[in-house]
Amino acid sequence: MDGGADDAGLDGGCFLPPPNECGDARCVTTVAGRGASRQFSAVVYQPSRNSLIISEPHRQQVIEFSIDDGGTRVLAGAGVCGQPTVDGLCFPTALALDSDGALYIADPGNDLIRKLESGLLSTFLASPQIEQAHGMAVVGGRLFVANGSNLLRIDLASQGVDVLFRGYELGAIGGVAASLDGGLLFAAEHTVRSMAVTSDGGHTLLSGQPGNQTPGYLEGPPASARFGYVSGLAELADGLYLADGTNHRLRVLAASTLTSSTLAGTGRTGISQGAPLETSLVYPGAITTNGVDLFIISSPGYVYRYSPQSSSINAVLGGRVWVTEGCARDVDLPWLSGLTRDDSGNVYFSDGLFHSLRVLTPRGDVRTLVGGVPGFVDGPADAGRIASPSDLAWRARAGSPLGELVVTDQGNGLIRAFDLSRREIRTLVGTARTAGNPEAYGCSAAFGPALSSARLCRPAALALGAARAIFVADSNLVATEGRISLYQPGLDSLSLFNQDFVPGALAVAPDGGLWVTSTSRSLSRIERLDENGNLVSTLDFSSRCPADPAGFGVCRPSSLCSNGPQLFVTVGEAGLVGQMMGDAFAPMAGIPWQRGHRDGPGRSALFRWPDELVDDGDGGLYVADEGNESIRYIAP
Length: 636
Fold this sequence. Notes:
By secondary structure, the protein is mainly beta. It is built from one helix and 51 strands. Strands 26-30-29-28-27 form a five-stranded antiparallel beta sheet, with no helix packed on it. A five-stranded antiparallel beta sheet has the order 31-35-34-33-32, with no helix packed on it. A five-stranded antiparallel beta sheet has the order 36-40-39-38-37, with no helix packed on it. A hairpin with a 5-residue loop joins strand 41 and strand 42 (514-519). The longest helix is centred in the N-terminal third of the chain and has 4 residues, at 167-170. The radius of gyration is 24 Å and the shape is globular.
């Protein structure tokens, strides 16, 4: 591993676009990242053609993949988020096939369910209840739709809609699938259940612990097994197969006993491939079957084939030769998280897929500083390990000419620091939750001495305060409880700063207090805390942001950046970057509620999901465009 902020760059340097190549104020330029990898959302098996039908939300299309020859073709979608025209789809998600071969497509960007039959795309149903659709199945002449916390049943003949379960009854609904006996299988709040298609709500618990809102991972009989978010199900004669998304595993409930066991996946994010338990299944989603094998969606952009008969797994679609170092426009930035800079023009970011910290130098090259394999190891960069790093911030450090990075190590539940001069990583706050599995569940927060009693659960965002203090936004694993913790080096202790809401992004205010985002499905606020953690004011952000013309989106601030009196805000869902002018939000770059990739003048540029941002000290901004897997620069 090479790389550090003091590297001069590759031989001869790399090309970096001019910071204002379009000649306009607030010009947007892509400075790093070779473009988004493919992202698949749903998969169904088409028996008449021995093929897989797959939805690609970011490419606004549905494709068909031939299992026989590996060829692909577009079935529907124009490649841009379109209105419900002949071929327009907007972020197609869930898919389902009926017995006649008609394909139903969840088109949540247009609040529609579309129907593709004999090559013709039509509107089957228009309903705002489709906005969160993530799973569908046709069973017994009815279309079942998992829609956030609701389970819908739609009669295919009359198009009548019944709401079978709401969120307050069973919790979040996960995957849905047909059972071999003609019933419905579905996941709800870390449990697996079944029901008759004509039921008005009666159902049977198959496995898991009802009422336990905390996800977990435990194999065994139904009463003791624990699950994360089960996003896909498929039944074969020997058992019920589950895509346990948040546990990054393929699991099965044995047909005779319903005892659970793990078949594939490492339990962590990554891109490793090999034997089933050595293959990374990253947030596995939908599952389908041809009656013999299973086909599983996995991020970023893979379809795996698992054979129960031979206990083997292989990728049949997707993936790429991942490039993590080199010239900035040629590298992959799949899971951008934090973003910060130093006084020399180096831009640092965390990479959640490759579990690493990386740097974009002024010469235009990207290098890995530490990590690459998930784990927990303090020490020299070549041996150091980190797990799912999230936010990070640069600061000066006595005795270190290059300073250091402070980072939230989300997988291990720690605050770590990487010394850029010594190239060493160390732990500042917390004790690793489980040495053998850094992404294990069961964390709990506690306050006290930094390296003995202090414990963090899911540290996400951080901000650096005066006297080297560190503010940390922390929540439990289902984000129903949260807190802002304060680490004070002088006391070498972690204490509670505020726990009035579940915090998101943090930014330090000029008086030493904090700006904090607080969001939920229908709530969008920026909270203002004073230097003692007391609530000073609450700003309803959603009412100050351009409204979604389709009427279903909520303007939620994704990240904050303060350079003193100015507060900059990204709105990922709306594709905007802007600045707070008093209580008003003033967009600087992006077209409201239009997502894509386009450089140029700020108000005509397109982002797919702008998130973390940092100012360059001269009035410009670097933005992590997570949807486009790139770093963008907004000129002054």
